[in-house]
């Protein structure tokens, strides 16, 4: 009869717990519904994708390849992020251990003296362990044994928590890959900026030599009274202006070199490079493939997707807090007041097993808030995932358009430079024959210098755009 009453009480208690857990607040969830176009444009339909090409195969300059290789080994930001990846991996191990039984070995010894005029004291006063031997005073106690606790993961709370940790770890890996992509692009961009500065410095020095030659001619014409001192001074001022610009370029070169050194993770030093054929170098052709390739190639998109999956699992984890938690506790060992009795069986043997079920009944605001927060984070992760896809697609479109426009601009600027170079010879001849003013010569030389500088800048932008398109396609991390 008592057993039936106990069983009824257990069933009633469990029913109350389960029914109470049904009062879970409803929260909003959201799925991503973003879709990408089939092609980037009607003109571009190739399936090949340069974003899948390894950076060692995409870049050809041996000095650049060496710099990238050193960067991926020594860059401090990358090494810092690698430790965060390791921490995320450790979190998986920690959460995995939460849903496995924990077993420990315990041992202890204690000493107890109670007052004589107390309940325990009066019992000890009248209790003998054996005839003619009083109860030990003070009483010692020795014990050792195995103790285990285990939370039964009935609602998969702990397993979902572990899966979420796995997703977060994989997301951190993709975050590392995205940093690698950015580092590869940043080193390559800085390298070609440095080469472009070398080309500008060389162009400026060549232009100064032309202006010095023109200055000597003007001085000779001045001596023969065919021009004035004003012309001589204007030519001298133009030479000195360009000579001062050399130092500005040299400072920029030092700063870009040190930017590269910082990325490589080393102290400031000259950067080895080959700038001899910069203007003759044709920008590499990039195959953009299909927009859907971005979902596979871009580490930031994969990272956002994994974080979205982790957010979904965290909702399940938060929801499980409303349900009863079931646990088991067990122990087995030996306990005795005297060490010589410690291993006596079954006299000193002890064991226990306890099962419990608990859940909050009153004031569940904290649990509700956690559940709602998990839902809000899931919706936030959806928006971040969609935003990442849109940003990736837009970056590719922008770089594709920029490549085409820069190519047209370069061709026109190249024609301009050729025309102005011819104009310099014509202006010098006309000036020597007194058929042109010295200002026409100065302005022609100045225009030629600016046009050649713009041409170098355009070529640099072409190289950087190719690199940025490669990065936008997800290239560089593999």
Automatic annotation (TrEMBL):
Membrane topology reported for the UniProt record: Lipid-anchor
Keyword annotations: Coiled coil, Lipoprotein, Membrane, Palmitate, Transmembrane, Transmembrane beta strand
Keyword field contains Membrane: yes
Protein location: Cell membrane
Coiled coil feature spans: 194-259
GO cellular component term, pick one: plasma membrane
GO molecular function: efflux transmembrane transporter activity
InterPro entries documented for this protein: MdtP/NodT-like, OMP_efflux
Keyword Transport included in the entry's annotation: no
Gene3D superfamilies: Outer membrane efflux proteins (OEP) (1.20.1600.10)
Location (main, coarse): membrane
PANTHER family: OUTER MEMBRANE CATION EFFLUX PROTEIN, OUTER MEMBRANE PROTEIN-RELATED
UniProt similarity note: Belongs to the outer membrane factor (OMF) (TC 1.B.17) family.
Protein name per UniProt: Efflux transporter, outer membrane factor (OMF) lipoprotein, NodT family
Upper lineage: Bacteria, Pseudomonadati, Bacteroidota, Flavobacteriia, Flavobacteriales
């Amino acid at each position: 009869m008592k057993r039936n009453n106990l069983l009824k009480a257990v069933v009633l208690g469990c029913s109350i717990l389960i029914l109470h857990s049904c009062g879970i607040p409803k929260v909003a969830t959201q799925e991503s519904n973003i879709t990408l176009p089939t092609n980037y444009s009607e003109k571009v339909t190739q399936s090949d994708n340069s974003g899948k090409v390894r950076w060692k195969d995409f870049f050809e300059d041996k000095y650049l390849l060496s710099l990238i290789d050193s960067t991926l080994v020594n860059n401090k930001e990358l090494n810092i992020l690698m430790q965060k990846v390791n921490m995320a991996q450790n979190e998986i191990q920690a959460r995995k251990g939460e849903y496995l039984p924990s077993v420990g070995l315990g041992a202890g010894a204690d000493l107890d003296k109670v007052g004589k005029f107390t309940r325990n004291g009066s019992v000890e006063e009248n209790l003998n362990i054996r005839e003619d031997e009083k109860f030990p005073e003070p009483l010692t106690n020795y014990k050792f044994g195995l103790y285990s606790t285990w939370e039964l993961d009935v609602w998969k709370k702990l397993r979902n928590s572990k899966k979420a940790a796995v997703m977060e770890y994989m997301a951190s890996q993709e975050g590392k890959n995205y940093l690698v992509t950015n580092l590869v692009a940043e080193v390559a961009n800085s390298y070609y900026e440095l080469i472009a500065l070398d080309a500008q410095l060389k162009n400026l020095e060549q232009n100064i030599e032309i202006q010095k030659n023109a200055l000597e001619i003007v001085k000779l014409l001045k001596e023969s009274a065919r021009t004035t001192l004003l012309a001589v001074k204007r030519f001298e001022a133009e030479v000195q202006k360009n000579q001062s610009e050399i130092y500005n370029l040299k400072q920029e070169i030092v700063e870009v070199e040190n930017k590269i050194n910082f990325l490589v993770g080393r102290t400031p030093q000259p950067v080895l490079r080959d700038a001899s054929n910069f203007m003759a170098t044709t920008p590499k052709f990039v195959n953009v493939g299909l927009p859907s390739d971005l979902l596979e190639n871009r580490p930031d998109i994969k990272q956002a997707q994994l974080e979205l999956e982790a957010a979904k699992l965290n909702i399940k984890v938060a929801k499980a807090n409303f349900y009863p938690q079931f646990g088991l506790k067990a122990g087995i060992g030996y306990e005795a007041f005297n060490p010589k009795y410690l291993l006596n069986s079954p006299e000193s043997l002890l064991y226990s097993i306890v099962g419990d079920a608990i859940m909050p009944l009153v004031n569940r605001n904290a649990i509700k808030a956690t559940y709602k927060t998990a839902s809000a984070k899931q919706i936030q992760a959806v928006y971040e995932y969609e935003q990442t896809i849109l940003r990736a697609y837009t970056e590719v479109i922008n770089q594709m358009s920029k490549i085409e426009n820069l190519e047209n601009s370069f061709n026109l600027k190249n024609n301009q430079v050729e025309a102005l170079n011819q104009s310099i010879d014509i202006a010098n001849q006309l000036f020597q024959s007194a058929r042109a003013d010295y200002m026409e010569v100065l302005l022609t030389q100045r225009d030629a210098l600016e046009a050649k500088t713009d041409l170098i800048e355009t070529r640099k932008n072409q190289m950087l755009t190719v690199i940025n398109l490669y990065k936008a396609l997800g290239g560089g991390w593999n």
